[in-house]
Amino acid sequence: MVKCCGKNTPSLMVSLGRLQALQNPFMGLKNFQRKLKRFRVKFLKGNVESSKRKGEEKYSRMTPISHGLHVIEDKSLRSGSGYLGSDSIVAQREQIQDQEVWMFGVFDVQMGDGIIRYLKSHLFDKKLNEIRRKSKETMKTAYLSAGTKLHEGEKENQGSIKKGSASAIVINGEKVVAAYMADYRAVICRDGVAKQIGKRQCRAKRHWPLNLIAGAWRMPNVCIIGCETSDTGNKPSTSEPVVRAEKIDSDAEFLILASNGIWEVMNNQEAVNLIRHMDDPQAAAECLTKEALTRISRSNISCLVIRFD
């Protein structure tokens, strides 16, 4: 610690931590940006709530949304006879009552059209308040409707159609409703931690060792991992969509929608760690797909990254 004193000069205290920070101006730049984002979100929300009370502002401020997408179309690297074509990717913006609603999706060639048509005809012609209330229910119905039509096609063709998709609706930068089925996934990154939408989350629970109980069999002190199960169960059925709503707050960094070609060669946290440092969502999407190709994925490789800036 350095202390400078003079007759007419106030005492100046400079901590060692301050000096170290000055020596390395780039240290913790990412953390500073995230703290700034949290402050900005809280500040804007506080202003909106105050304005609503005073009746001065009708609409809320929203978190800026950016996205990037990429599809690997090299069919020669797929498994061969079962290959039906590359996935389709949708990124569409709708303006509803001066509010912004985004529809994102990664679909196989069988599922995409049915889901998109249903959402357009049953959701995007509604008022904003209705969209907020019914987006989750409508998303699930869209998946079930598209799946039913494909199932009927299977009966007519006497064959099995492999179907999968992952999609999301982002409402005014405040809320995201995500859905997926089969081996596709929707994974959100919150403060660096990957969370698969709708999957049960596990946390460590410390149990008392038996050697503290008189007369009990002695065993070493261990920490057992216990799981808190959500209402989705261990793994969703391939025929049943998983649909969940997530709040876009200061901890929400980005959302990954990707096909099974990504997830069969890397887990959720690997994918998040691979792209978290990238500010450009297009570069992030390309990074994930190319990494899956490098790891010799044999399924459709497609990815959409949505950043909450």
Automatic annotation (TrEMBL):
Signal peptide: none annotated. PROSITE patterns: PPM_2. Residues 83-308 form the PPM-type phosphatase domain. SUPFAM superfamilies: PP2C-like (SSF81606). Pfam families: PP2C. InterPro entries: PP2C, PPM-type-like_dom_sf, PPM-type_phosphatase-like_dom. SMART domains: PP2Cc. GO terms for molecular function: protein serine/threonine phosphatase activity. PANTHER family: PROTEIN PHOSPHATASE. This is PPM-type phosphatase domain-containing protein. It comes from Protea cynaroides. The lineage of its organism: Eukaryota, Viridiplantae, Streptophyta, Embryophyta, Tracheophyta.
